């Protein structure tokens, strides 16, 4: 069964020409537009219509009274009353009873009864007139008792045709059989047309709603280098609440028509009209959810920003289809075909198949688009949407209902699982490509000021965001990488990474893949640790691009602190990496800090040593002057350089400044207190003592701002 294009059933009613002419007249009237009238004129028109309606009702009552009077007069004169559908139906029922008894051999007779041709002819003519009344009138379908009367008459035509067909070899039955068969066909065309009209009315309303309620497209996903701004995964359920497609009275009419058509052997026509109308209604309702049907070729050509927005609306449409549309469709099928469970099940499964397959085409197209890192999260969103609806799908399409249609339709559950498998496969491949991206970043240009490297921001935020899909990624990695589990002796877990994974360049495999050390191998955690190890090794290589070893350690501190802070702020990634990993990185940070202190301030503090300043109890002034001079020059150089260095983390910046002040300021204050008196007041003091202790403290507070400033105004006066 093709599910891609909406179909329009061909109507074959013998009364279609009159109805088409009426519809064309209505269309012409609509094409003239709406004319706004004065309120007084409208009231006048309404009164005129009411008067005309009352006159017509009075005329009908008078005609009915005249017919009744004539029937009474004819009866009193011994004349046969005028035949009507009710009286003739009784005669037909009597004939059918005899015909059935003969056919079954219950009355012992083998000869078929004489056919009352005049009665049959009167009956079928009256049925034709009854249908013509509603075909050419304003009311599309009779209501109340008239509805039951017409359906009963059509049912008699069906039984009459079936009964006469048993004696098709009898020449005397040929004319009556052909006549009733023709009227039965006309009746079925009439019912088919009314069945279609009832179904179409709701579809027209749905199209009107969809055209006036377009969903606003979602903004494009943040670029990966801007991952500091957190965007949560798209997991919000559809806001569209299911509503009945048809009012109860329309459903009841559809049920009665379906029963009549199926009883007459026109089940194929009835099912085709229903299936096509409901499929077209489903497609017409998609735009109201913001999703327009697109081909695989269109998806492959689409820019990522546009495709990203389409995925968001697709997820909404998919969830709504499974949780609302398909469920409502099952209720409709069961109500309309309540007397025919097998037909109801078949129609429902056909609808579910077409609706799901149509939506899965888009998801399948996403799996074959060019893979790139930023697509991971939308791929996972689609995967989660499919995974989360499976309990609902299982409930709607239980396995025991699959057998009859298995040779005709592909099981929607199988299709969902197949596409979901390919999405998981794509997600694993995209995530594993991250290690290749880290390895490929071999830029030889150091980041100015030792700031956080863009690669650090990219990888850390990417991994942090990925870990918000922790459960899903663990699931897809176990599904697609289970065969690569390492042996129990392989503590590092390096074998868990395939061709896209790389090897974890730093060799730090502690706790890798053990989900925090609980002994349960976790391939996603192993991949995550591998990526972090590669990032660490890459940063250590980049730190060697700085000629100043102190700046090299500032760079490592900046990047290490950035990573540690992100990990500490994310319970998911912290859990996966494990406490052992976190303690190791914290220890690395402390070592970088010590290395920085040693490379910068240890040399400066050497100028404040007492060694060699006193000779035979006296202070050597030339050496003292040289010490002050060296200290001043060295501090100015450090201030000039390190005020342009960048430490963007306020806490780390404060820690560095405090630690420097705690080492330098007390040592300088002590040295100044002990030896400043040996310099002559005036020019010598101004020449060699350029800073006070508070000056140093203020100047140290200017370090790591990224803005080199002159210290002329800060010097001691």
From TrEMBL:
Positions of the UniProt region annotated as Disordered: 1-81, 478-519
Q: Which GO terms describe its biological process?
A: exocytosis; protein transport
Q: Any keyword RNA-binding? A: no
Start-end of Acidic residues biased regions: 53-65
Every copy of the Exocyst complex subunit Exo70 C-terminal domain together lies at: 313-702
Source species, domain of life: Eukaryota
Task: Note the PANTHER family from the entry.
Answer: EXOCYST COMPLEX COMPONENT EXO70C1, EXOCYST COMPLEX PROTEIN EXO70
Name of the featured protein: Exocyst subunit Exo70 family protein
